[in-house]
Amino acid sequence: MSNHIKQTFIMSRANLFSLPRRLAISTSMVLSVALVVAVLAGFLAMSKGFEQALEGAGSSDIAVVLGGGTNQEMGSDIPADAIRNLQAMSGDFGVTRDAAGSLIASREIIVTIGFTPEADTLPRTLALRGMDASGPLIRDGVTLSDGRLFRPSAREIVVGARIAADFPGFEIGETVRLGALDWTVVGHFASNGSAFESEIWADLETTRAAFDRQGQVQSLRLRLHDASSLSSLNVQLQNISQTRLLAVSEANLYAAQAGRTADIIQLFGWPLALLMAIGATAGALNTMMSSVADRTVEIATLRALGFSRLSACLATWFEAIALACIGAVLGILASWLGFNGWQASTVGANNASIGFQLSVTGDVMLNAGLLGLAIGALGGAIPAFAATRLPLTAALRASG
Amino acid sequence: MTFSKLARKNMWRKPLRTVLLIICVAVAFLIYGLTASFVAGSQGSSAASEDVLGVTSVAGQSQPLPIAYLGRITSQPDVETVGYMTRLRGFVETENNVVSVSATDPARLMAVTGPQLGLTPVLIEALGGARDRLLVGRALANANGWIVGQRITVTSFQIAKQDGIRNWRFEIAGIFEGESTSTDTYFAIAHYDYVNASRALAQDTVSAFILRPRAGVSPSELAVQIDALFANSATPTRTQSEKQFLEAFMRQYADVGMIVNLVTGAAFVTLLMIIINTMIFAVRERRFEIGVLKTLGVSRRRIMMLVLAETLLVFIVGGGVGLALTKLATVLAGPAIGLTLTPMIIAKASAIIFILGIATGALPAFNAMRTPIVSAFRTR
Description:
The complex is a heterodimer of chains A (400) and B (380).
Chain A: H1 2-17, H2 23-55, E1 62-67, H3 80-88, E2 105-115, E3 124-131, E4 143-147, E5 156-160, H4 161-166, E6 175-178, E7 181-190, E8 199-203, H5 204-210, E9 219-223, H6 230-237, E10 245-249, H7 250-294, H8 296-304, H9 309-339, E11 343-347, E12 353-357, H10 362-388, H11 392-397
Parallel strand pairs in A: 3-8, 5-7
Antiparallel strand pairs in A: 1-9, 1-10, 2-3, 2-9, 4-7, 5-8, 6-7, 11-12
Helix pairs in contact in A: 1-9, 2-7, 2-9, 2-10, 7-10, 9-10
Chain B: H1 3-11, H2 15-43, E1 53-57, E2 65-66, H3 69-74, E3 79-91, E4 98-104, H4 106-117, H5 121-127, E5 133-137, H6 138-144, E6 151-156, E7 167-176, E8 188-191, H7 192-198, E9 205-206, E10 208-213, H8 219-229, E11 237-241, H9 242-253, H10 256-285, H11 287-295, H12 300-333, H13 343-370, H14 373-378
Parallel strand pairs in B: 4-8, 5-7
Antiparallel strand pairs in B: 1-10, 1-11, 2-9, 3-4, 3-6, 3-10, 5-8, 6-7
C-alpha cells in the first residue's frame, strides 16, 4: 500500500511539474471553474444579504398586531374600537406599560410613494411609515445618527440611512415632495444595515391626513416583557374585537418576508450555476484528456518501469482536483473582493424598495467552492480512468 | 474524398472530445436563450406596446388621480381614445394567491387596448350583464382553475367598502385570451362603477388613465403635452408608454438586464476559452496529417477552411441543441414564469453562433495554415 502512495506521489509531482507545457488549456480550466464559482457565490451572497437585512430588523421582544386575517402589514387593517378596547384593558397580558400604566404601543400605517430622485431618472418606490411618537422607541437597535425625531402634527420626516445615502435631497433641513405635499427632513436614523434603513418615518396623524387615510391603522407595535409573552397577548386579542387580530413577533414577521425573496434568488442562482457547471465539467474533461494525451509517453514509461495503474489514475485525478482547487479559490477570492458589501436593492413585502448589501459569508464560500471542486472531481474521473488504460507498446512507439 | 467529408471525418476523429465541445456550446446557448427569454417574457416587451400611454400620479402608481382629469385629457387634439382604471389588488382564498383586478369602463378599455388583450364584443357584452361581473385573463383563470359562471371573492389589500369590509364579490362572465402567448393575462377586468360606488375612501379617483394617440402623433411628444397640462395642479401626472413603465418596474426588482449580461458574459468567456484551447490542441495533434495534405498540394486557404468548418460545425450543432432545449424549457415552464423565446432572440443567437464559430476557429486555423511541411513531418 505504501508503495502505491509513494508511486502516486512521484507521478503527481511529475504531473504538476509538466503543467507549464499545458499552460494555456490548464489556465482555461482554472478560469472556467473560477467563473462558475463566482457566479454561484454572487447569487448566494445576494440571497444571504437580503436575509441578513430583514433578520436584523426583527426583535422577538416586540409584537406586531395585524388585523383581518393576514400575516403581513400590507392588507392588514385594525379597527379603531379594537385598539381602544386593548388600551382600556387592565391586567398583565405580557405587554409592558409606561409609568402612567398605559400600554407602550405605536399605531402605524405604511404608504408607498413613487419618488423620482432627479429629473429624467427612473422613479423608485419608497415606504413612508406613519407612527405614533413612541414608534421609534419600540424598535431595537435603531439609533438616531443625526438631527432629531419628527414632532407630532408637523410635516417632518426622519429618514433611514440607506435612503439618505442612495438618494440626493434627503439632507437634514431640506424639503422633499412626497405625494402632493412637501416634507422637511429633520433627522437620519441607522440600524446596522437592516431593512428599517430603507424606510421613511413620520407622524401618524400627519401621514393619514396627507394621503387620505383618515382613521386607518395597519399595524400596532407593542413591547413585550419577553418573547414568551406573545401567546398570552394572542389569547387576549381573541376577545376584544370581531375582526380577527393576530400578534406575531417582529422577528418572525421579517423572517417570513426574507424567506420568500431569498428563495426566489436561490431559485435563479442554482440552476444557472449548475448549467454553467455542466459546461465547465465538459471543459475540464477535455482539459484532462489533453493532459493525458500530452503525457502519454511519460505515463507509458513509468508504467513500463513498474508503476501501478492506480498511481497513474490517482495522479491524473489529483491534477484535475488541484486545478479545480486553484479555480475555486480564485473564484471565491474574486467574489469576495467584487461582491462583498455591494449595495443592491429590490422590492420588499410592502411593494417598496428595500436596500441590502451582498454578503459573502463562510457558507456561501463553502457551497460555491464545493461546486468548483465537484467540477474538478467529475471532470478528472474519466480521463484518470483513461490514463490506466493506455496501451503501453503503442504509446511508447507513438513518439520519440 | 470531398472537402466536407474530410471536415466531417476530422470532427469525429475523437468523438468524445467533439461531443464534449458540443455540450459546452449547447449549455452556453441554453443559458443565453433562457435568460434572454426570461427578460423578454418578464418585461412582456414583445407584447408591451409603445403606442399605448399610461397616465399615473407622479407620486407613484398607488396614489390616486381625480377622474375629473378625463375631460381635459380627452380634449387634447392628439388623443384618439382614453380609458381609465382603478387597480384593486387583493387575494383570493389564501394570502399568497395575489390577484390584480382592473376596475374600468369596459367600452373605453375595448377602444384603447381591446385587440391586445383579446377582448371581443361578445366578452364585453357578457361583462355588461351585471355590475359585479368580471372578465378573467387566461393565465389567471388557468392558475386558479376558474370557469365562467363561478363566483369568487377578492379580499382587497387597500380598498375597503363603506361598511369597512374589504371583501369584493365577483361573478366570472368570461375569459380573455390575450393577443399572443406573451401577453400578460394574469389579471381581471371589472366595472369601475361597481368598485367606485361602494368604496369608502378615494371615491371618484382612478389609478391610471390609458390612452391611444391619434395616428401619426409621436407618443413621447404627447406624453410631454399631457404632463404639462397638470404640472401645476395638486396631483401632477407622469405619462409613459406601457413598455417604459414595465421596464422601470422590473428595474426596481433588480437590474435584470445587468445580471443577465454578466451571467451570459461569464458563460461565453468560459466556453470560448475551453474551445479555443481544445481546438489548438486538436490541430497540433494532427500536424502530420496537415503536412501530408500540404504535400499533396492542398492550398493553405483550403486547410484553413477545413479547420474553420470543423469549429463552425461544432458551434452550429451545439447552438442548435441549446436553442432547441430553450424552446423545450419555455414550453415546459408554463405561463407563470413567462419565458418567451421570440424570433428576435433566435436571430441574435444564430448571429452569435456564427461569429463565435468563426472567431474561435480563427487562431487554430491560422496555426494550421502556417505549419511548415518540414516541421510537420518532423513530429513523427
